[in-house]
Amino acid sequence: MKDLNIKIYSDGADIEDMVQRDVSNDVDGFTTNPTLMAKDGVTDYIEFAKEALSKIKEKSISFEVFSDDIEDMYRQAIILRDLGENVYVKIPVSNTKKEMTYDLIKRLSSEGVKLNVTAIFTIEQIEKVYEALNKNIPAIISIFSGRIANAGIDPEPFIKHAVSLAKDTPCIEILWASSREVFNLIQAERCGCHIITMAPSLLNAANKELGKDLAQFSLETVEMFYKDANNAGYNF
C-alpha cells in the first residue's frame, strides 16, 4: 500500500488494535461510530473516547454524536470537540425524523469544529454538505460507497463529483466509507479520493494480499481446500 496516495483510516472500536496500528504507523487515522463501539463491547462512550485519545495523540480520530435531536447533537458535538485537538466530530447528514443537519453543520463548522459528516448517499447531500461547511476549517465528507454499491449503484461517480467540488478547498477531504473489499482501495485511489476507511479485517487482507501473484494465490486456495477437507475427515 506504500505506492498509494490515498490516506487509510482504520474503522473500528478495539482500543488494542487502534493503538497497535498507531504505533506501527500503518494507518493515517481512525474512525468509529456507536454501532462499532457497541459491537466491541464499549459501555461508556466518553470513557472509551478519552482512553483512545490518551494513547493516540496525533492521528485524527472521528467520534460520532448519537442524539436524535439536532440541538442536542450540537451539545454532544461540543463535548466531543473538547476532548482533544485531533478529534473530528461525526455528524450524520440527518436524524431519524428526516430532519437534515445542514444548518447544524454550518453552525459547528463556522465555530471552528472539525467535522466528519457521515451517512451520505446522494449527490444532493454531497452538494449541500459541501455548501454548509466553512472552507477554511478541516472537514471530511464521508460517502457510504460500500452501501451505495450494495444498492446496485456504482459509487465512483459520487466520489468523483465530490472530489471535483472540493478540488480548490484543501481543508475539505472526501472519504470512501463502508468499504466491503480490498479492491475498494483501488477504486477510491483512482477516483482521487482523499481518505478511505477500512475495517481491521480488510486492512489485514490488504497488507497480506494486495498485489499478490494470482497463480500463487490460486495454488494457496487449492491447498486450503485440500487441507480443510482432510482436517474435516471427509471420505467417500
Describe the structure.
The protein is α/β, with parallel strands linked by helices. Helices cover 47% and strands 17% of the residues. The chain is built from eleven helices and eight strands. It has helices at 15-24, 34-39, 45-55, 70-81, 102-110, 123-132, 145-150, 156-165, 183-190, 200-209, 214-231; strands at 7-11, 29-31, 60-64, 87-92, 115-120, 139-143, 172-176, 195-198. Strands 1-2-3-4-5-6-7-8 form an eight-stranded parallel β-barrel, surrounded by seven helices. β3, α4 and β4 form a beta-alpha-beta unit. α5 (102-110) packs parallel to α6 and α6 (123-132) packs parallel to α8. The chain is globular. The N and C termini lie far apart (44 Å).
**Overall pLDDT confidence:** 97
> In order across it, which strands form the biggest sheet?
1-2-3-4-5-6-7-8
Output the helix-strand order: EHEHHEHEHEHEHHEHEHH
Give the DSSP E fraction (strand runs of 2 or more residues). Answer: 15-25%
Class from secondary-structure proportions? alpha/beta
Taking the sheet with the most strands, its summary is: 8 strands, parallel, barrel
Give the % helix. 40-55%
